[in-house]
Amino acid sequence: MRQFSQPEINFIKNIKVYASVALANSVLYQNIYSIKNNLEKLVEERTSLIEKQKEEIETDLRLARKIQMSLLPKNVPSIKKIKIAYRYEPVSAVGGDFIDVHYRDGMNEVGLFICDVSGHGVTSAMIASMIKISLSSWGKFIKNPSSSFREMREMLKGKIGSNFISAFMCSIDITTGIVTSACAGHHPMIILRKDGDLEYVKPRGKIIIDYVDSEYEELKSKLNYGDKIILYTDGVIETANAEGVILDEEKFKKFLIDNVNLSAYALSSRIHDEIFNNDKKAIIEDDFTLLIAEYTGESL
After folding, report:
1. Fewer beta carbons below 10 Å: N end or C end of the chain?
2. How many CB atoms lie within 10 A of CB 218?
3. Which three-class secondary structure state does DSSP give residue 133?
4. For residue 132, how many other CB atoms are within 10 A of its CB?
5. From CA 229, how far away is CA 60, in angstroms rounded?
């Protein structure tokens, strides 16, 4: 029997090695293919789950927004001697700002309220809903906004977590034009006089936050024919328009003076359009909320 030469032995050994490598690669390929299929299936399942969760979140947000929008004044009340207008643009599907107007036929006072709940989204909107409920007793204290704030603090105590609320509240005596106001760490109320002068009303009072008490000072002001009250939240002076220009406090002040002759509704629309340019391309980082009341009566 012929013996294999050394080259032939080496050749056979190489064939054996190549065959082993080919077999190992085949097994590895099968494993990789199996892993790939499993990963694709896992990714498909996870994607389906994420899409489902996203749909549920969007459904919840739509419902929360519907609830929140229902809290805003559906129709601005028609009040003799007082014209009221507001504009509202939330930063997300659900915002944390809230306004209310309190008036019933036969009343001699009208109450205005605006607030800004820290944060955005469902949590802030739910707190805004609780604020609406806490204002159910507003009618009893409409002449004393400081009492309304104390009542609100008691009702919200232990319910707002780490969130906080800044707010401004005032009542206008329709006959005399006397405005009684109180503030909880919010922007001052601006009185835009008919002649273009501006007055800033800022009663002392801390933001509403759990376990921090505060007394709320009341201040009185007097409106004359053609004067306007302007209440607003951060978004009015911190939102950049499509060109990146922010209507900051100084620009806002000048803008009000330049448009002093506009009605409450026209002024609110002009401020809104100055920022949003009717194209919805403004860079919104906070809810935009504006409430304007114009006194059209002869004060006593």
Report:
1. N
2. 20
3. helix
4. 18
5. 36
List own/partner pairs for 77-82 with CB under 8 A and 24 or more apart: 77/101, 77/103, 77/110, 79/103, 79/110, 79/174, 80/174, 80/297, 81/174, 81/295, 81/296, 81/297, 82/110, 82/172, 82/174, 82/293, 82/294, 82/295, 82/296, 82/297
- Reduce the secondary structure of 246-264 to three states and give it as a string: ECCHHHHHHHHHHCCCCCH
Helices (H) and strands (E) in the chain, counts: 6, 11
Distance between CA atoms of residues 178 and 222, nearest Å: 4
pLDDT in tens, 252-262: 999 999 999 99
Residue 144: Cβ-neighbour burial (10 angstroms; 0-12, 13-18, 19+): middle
The full DSSP string for 179-228 is: EEEEEEBPPPEEEE-TTS-EEEE------EETTB------EEEE--TT-E
Amino acid, single-letter form, for residue 28: L
User: Quick one: 19 exposed, middle or buried, by C-beta within 10 A (0-12, 13-18, 19+)?
Assistant: exposed
**Do strands 219-222 and 189-192 pair parallel, antiparallel, or not at all (unpaired)?**
unpaired
Query: Given CA atoms 58, 60, 61, 67 in this order, what sign does their dihedral have?
Result: positive
* Interval 163-211: pLDDT, tens: 999 999 999 999 999 999 999 999 999 999 999 999 999 999 999 998 7
Q: Contact at 8 Å (CB) between 98 and 156?
A: no
Each residue's pLDDT tens digit, 72-111: 887 777 888 999 999 988 776 667 788 999 887 778 899 9
pTM higher than 0.85, yes or no? no
CATH fold of 72-295: Phosphatase 2c; domain 1 (3.60.40)
